[in-house]
Design goal:
The complex is a heterodimer of chains A (about 180) and B (about 160). Chain A is mostly helical and about 180 residues long. Chain A is about 65% helix and about 0% strand. Chain A starts with a helix and ends in a 10-residue tail after the last helix. The termini of chain B are close together. Classes of the chains: A mainly alpha (about 180), B alpha+beta (about 160).
């Protein structure tokens, strides 16, 4: 091993990256932000789209792994984010997956449940869209959809359980 | 994400999890190089091989949402993973990619991961992780941050 390689192996053991003072931190943050803003202006539309698609994938994975039901984690919100990351007009997406723009709008606005065919088309579309971005498990759309269902049902348990319970009995109980 | 056993070349999936208060008792300076008790009030994560309880590395971070940035405060591997005799490779890369994923998830195309580095090691981070140096601060942003995530995440 060369001396250079030894140095490389050693530099990775630890980094103390804490700023010595608030002043140093603010000063570094200011020059970093100026440089970043200059670089951000140079980003292409493609690079921004890729970052947004990766962001969406990571958000969806987070919801699958740690399901917390709120408005942000609704299937329709993920769908909206997906379409708006790629298209300037939602109607163009509707055309690309051969669905009626009105139906699409109803799904996005939670006025209609997505049909199986819609989700299947979305899976195929996203598989193509993510091809050059990152690995993407297309079944995640179904996982999100069903996770939403579970979260919604369990969040409303107090409302539906009393009435449903009246209709359910066990006439034969197996004794173990 | 995976680390590589330098002896056998075998890859091992890792978990990166928040450090529990109880963990601090075993985070000695002798094995983890820094006084990690000073980071108790910070967000600290540990890296372990899936199914193992042995902590192979640690990182503490500061989220700076107003700047769409996550700053690495302190990062280390355990003693046996330092230098040319290290047991596992890619611990630091896994940590940086983990934080990069956090930053992208939170801030999208504006995401940035930063760290302050001494000049003698800055070049290493620029070469290995495609970081840029501004003043004393190294940072990685879009588009390089996406390549870094894909490299460590898809292996």
């Amino acid at each position: 091993m060369t001396e250079d390689n030894n140095l490389m192996m050693d530099v990775e053991y630890g980094i103390d990256s804490r700023y010595k003072s608030g002043l140093e931190s603010v000063s570094e943050a200011t020059i970093l932000m100026e440089a970043r803003l200059r670089r951000m202006k140079m980003l292409s539309k493609d690079q921004i789209t890729k970052a947004k698609l990766l962001q969406l994938k990571l958000k969806m994975e987070e919801f699958i792994n740690h399901p917390i039901y709120d408005n942000h984690n609704h299937f329709s919100n993920f769908l909206k984010f997906y379409i708006d990351s790629i298209y300037s007009k939602r109607s163009t997406f509707a055309k690309d997956i051969n669905v009626d723009p009105v139906s699409l709008s109803q799904v996005i606005n939670n006025h209609r449940e997505p049909k199986d065919e819609f989700i299947l088309k979305l899976m195929i579309h996203s598989e193509k869209a993510y091809k050059d971005v990152c690995s993407f498990n297309k079944k995640i759309w179904y996982q999100i959809y069903f996770n939403n269902k579970i979260c919604e049902i369990m969040a409303k348990q107090e409302q539906w359980q009393p009435e449903i319970e009246k209709q359910v009995r066990i006439s034969e109980v197996t004794k173990f | 994400m995976k680390v590589i056993d330098t002896l056998t070349g075998k890859k091992h999936l890792v978990d990166i999890l928040p450090v529990d208060m109880a963990d601090f008792k075993i985070l000695t300076k002798d094995r983890y190089f820094f006084d990690w008790n000073l980071e108790k009030k910070q967000e600290v994560h540990k890296l372990l091989i899936k199914g193992s309880k042995d902590i192979l590395g640690l990182v503490s971070i500061e989220r700076i949402p107003q700047e769409w940035r996550i700053h690495i405060r302190l990062l280390t591997v355990s003693k046996e993973n330092k230098g040319s005799e290290k047991k596992y490779d890619r611990i630091v890369g896994c940590f940086i990619a983990f934080i990069a994923k956090m930053a992208i998830r939170e801030f999208g195309e504006l995401a940035c991961v930063s760290l302050k580095s001494k000049s003698e090691i800055a070049q290493h981070y620029m070469d290995k992780y495609a970081m840029r140096l501004t003043g004393m601060t190294l940072s990685i942003e879009v588009p390089e941050i996406i390549d870094l995530i894909n490299f460590y995440d898809n292996d």
